[in-house]
Structure formats: structure tokens, C-alpha cells
Amino acid sequence: DLHLSLRRQRQMCIRDRLLLTRIDNGTPFDLADIKEISVGSLLTSAVDAAHVSWPDRDISLVLSEDGIVVGDETRLRQVVDNLIVNAVRHAGENAQIRVGLRIDHEHDNALIMVSDNGIGMDADTASHVFDRFFRGDHSRARDTDDRSGGSGLGLSIVKSLVEAHRGTVTVASSPGAGTQFVVTLPLAVESDD
Hints:
It is a single chain. The protein is of the alpha+beta class and 193 residues long. It has helices spanning 2-24, 39-53, 73-90, 123-128, 154-164; strands at residues 34-38, 58-63, 68-72, 96-104, 109-116, 168-173, 179-186. The protein has 5 helices and 7 strands. The strands form 2 sheets. A 5-stranded mixed β-sheet has the order 2-4-5-7-6. A two-stranded antiparallel sheet has the order 1-3. The longest helix has 23 residues, at 2-24. It is globular and about 40 Å long.
């Protein structure tokens, strides 16, 4: 139903803007929500949900080891969800989407990767994907199965939430060669007790 879809898009846009206001005010999450999180479990849950939302899409999880980070689980899940939705919308309907985790033991970081082998983007588009309200040219050719709408805020929210968790997010892409986002988060510090 088009009316329901448009209302859902407006609600998501309002939620996104409220979250960005909280981020701008330095309060993207409540300190009471901070805890240790299994990144492997978080990614498994996100990919399982993606299979429910897009059963016809090739979305898989590549998980060889797990890592524990400290943060707001709801907000970190939102980061992963936004990256998966971005790939579903922009990679092309036949693209394979891979969600993975690598642990950088040397630097004590968890690296979350969301990649696709889809249409990719040029360097100019890639340099702006984290800007608020930016929508690349191919956003007009969205997957018609997309049920979540788009405000041009998803990747800006990803960047802000990752930085609020003392992490970084990068993108590598080229036309016809797919896109890879890498979120780097510090691993939880093990106590000596």
C-alpha cells in the first residue's frame, strides 16, 4: 500500500532527524545502555533480519571469529542495518552482499565489513556518501522491493554512531566493481582480575 509506505518513510525520516539532533548534542545514546557486546551475535542477528526483509536477495555472513566491543547494542545494530539496507538499495538487484568480521589482534580492533559485488560508485560519490542528505545519482534507480524509504541520512548516521563509539568507518568502491564499508571499533579491554 503506497499510503502506508509513504507514512513509514516519513516516520523513519523523523526518527533519523531526532537521532541526528541527539548526536549533535553529544547524547547519541544513554550511558545506561552501554555494555559488552558480541559482534558475532550482533552481525548474525542483523543478517537473519535482512533475510526476512529481503528473502530473494543474496545476503550472507562470513564469521570466522568473534570479538567483544563496548557500546550501545541498539545503536551498533542500527549501524549494521543501515549498511545492509544501503547495499540492498544501491548495489543492484543481482548483487551479492557479504557481512563479515575480522579481528585485528595487533591493534585490538574489530573490523565489521559490509561489501557487495554490485554497480559500485565513482570516487566523487564515494567521497560524499557520509554527508547528510547526500543521495548519489543511482539512488533514483532504487530497488523497488525497498520497504524502508530513504532520507539521505543513513550513512551520515552510521558515521556519527561509529565515531560516538570511538571508531571509524571507511568506504572503498569503483564503478562496476562493488563497494565495501569497513567499520573499525576498539575491542573491549580485558580486565586482569
